[in-house]
């Protein structure tokens, strides 16, 4: 059980690290789209790492945690596509 606890807390710690790392890019001088991309990728990876850590900690809730991981991956991927489409020059949204 000690090994599982260590792995669980390590995954949660890595997830929190990714959250702060993604937020640090907001202070840069790059474009807004670069900042949003960095933030969304880091938040997605961080949230997934935290969910994996919770999955190790409370394995009897695995259906809900797996569903959360899948929904998180699909939602953030679709959000990235929407942002990329809306940022194109000459798209229908700009007319």
UniProtKB/TrEMBL annotation:
<dbReference type="GO" id="GO:0015297">
    <property type="term" value="F:antiporter activity"/>
</dbReference>
<feature type="transmembrane region" description="Helical">
    <location>
        <begin position="64"/>
        <end position="86"/>
    </location>
</feature>
<dbReference type="InterPro" id="IPR005133">
    <property type="entry name" value="PhaG_MnhG_YufB"/>
</dbReference>
<dbReference type="Pfam" id="PF03334">
    <property type="entry name" value="PhaG_MnhG_YufB"/>
</dbReference>
<feature type="transmembrane region" description="Helical">
    <location>
        <begin position="6"/>
        <end position="27"/>
    </location>
</feature>
<dbReference type="GO" id="GO:0098662">
    <property type="term" value="P:inorganic cation transmembrane transport"/>
</dbReference>
<protein>
    <submittedName>
        <fullName>Multisubunit sodium/proton antiporter, MrpG subunit</fullName>
    </submittedName>
</protein>
<keyword id="KW-0812">Transmembrane</keyword>
<keyword id="KW-0472">Membrane</keyword>
<feature type="transmembrane region" description="Helical">
    <location>
        <begin position="39"/>
        <end position="58"/>
    </location>
</feature>
<keyword id="KW-1133">Transmembrane helix</keyword>
